[in-house]
Amino acid sequence: MGDLYALDFDGVLCDSCGESSISAVKAAKVRWPALFDGVDSVLEDWIVDQMHMVRPVVETGYENLLLVRLLVESRLPSIRKTSVAEGLTVEDILENWSKIKPVIMEEWDENRDALIDLFGKVRDEWMDNDLATWIGANRFYPGVPDALKFSSSSIYIVTTKQSRFADALLRELAGVTIPPERIYGLGTGPKVKVLKQLQLRPEHQGMKLHFVEDRLATLKNVIKEPELDGWNLYLGDWGYNTQKEREEAANISRIQLLQLSDFSKKLK
Q1: If DSSP states are collapsed to H, E and C, what string results for 97-149?
Q2: 137 Cβ neighbours under 8 A, 6+ residues apart
C-alpha cells in the first residue's frame, strides 16, 4: 500500500533560522520601537548569532520575537523590563524556556495572537518588497529538494509555520510543488490532531505511517496518544535539537534517531 510521510518543515526540510531571526528583529523594532532604538548593526549580528543557539526551544514562530527581546534585555541592563533577563545564558534558555516564556509574556503584557499576526505581517512585507532576499535567507538541507521531488511516498507537511511561507519556500527555493491540501500549517490544530486526521482517511488505510520531526517534545506528545501507536517516529538529528535531547531520544524505544542522508534515502 505504500508509505505516508508526515514531515515537519523548519528543522527537517528547511533551515529557516537566519530568516526567522532577521524577521524577528524587524518585528521587534515595530513592536517595541523605544527599546530597540539602541540596537545597532553589531548588536543585531550578535542577536542573530545567539538565535541560532537558542532556536531548539522555538515551537511557534512568534516565540522568536520574545527571544530577540530577551537577548537584548540580557545584554542592555538600561532597558531591562523583566526579572529573568539578568545574568541569563543560552544554557538557561535551553533548559528553562517553558518556565521563562509565561513570565515574560505577563511582565511585558504581550498577546500571543497579536505577536503571531505581527510576525506574519513583517514576513509578508519582506516577501512583497524583496522576495529574492527573503528566499535567500532560508536554505533547504542538502539532498532534501531532490528527495521530495522524486519520492514515491505520499508526502504531507505538518508544521507550526504559516502555510503560505512553507508553500513559497517549497516552490521558489526547492522547486517542489506540494498541493495546498497536503500542507497543514499554523492554525490547523496541534500536530497530534493532524496525525489522527491523516490516519483516518480512507485512502490511507493499510499504508505505513512515518512522522519526522526535530522537536523531541512533539514526538513525546505523540507517544502519549495511544491512538497514534501505528506511527513510526523519527527525530532528525540535523534539526533544531540539542545533544542532550538526542541522547534522551536514543533511549526511547518508539523514536528512531535519523541522519540526513538516511532521511533522503527513505523518502525515495
Answers
A1: HHHHHHHHHHHCCCCHHHHHHHHHHHHHHHHHHCHHHHHHCCEECCCHHHHHH
A2: 16, 18, 19, 22
Is the per-residue pLDDT at 38 higher than 90? no
Answer whether 219's CB lies under 8 Å from 249's CB.
yes
Q: Which grid coordinates belong to 120?
A: 506574519
- Taking only the tens place, the pLDDT of each residue in 84-103 is 999 999 999 999 999 999 99
Burial class (CB in 10 A: 0-12, 13-18, 19+), 259: exposed
Closest by CA position to 228, among listed 197, 266, 263, 186: 197
For 102-112, the pLDDT digits (tens) are 999 999 999 99
What domains can be seen in the chain, in order of their start residue?
3-15+139-267 (3.40.50.1000), 17-132 (no CATH)
Residue 189 exposed, middle or buried by CB count within 10 Å (0-12, 13-18, 19+): exposed
Confidence band for 185, pLDDT divided at 50, 70 and 90: very high
| Cell numbers for 20 | 526567522
The set of cell numbers assigned to 51 is 538565535
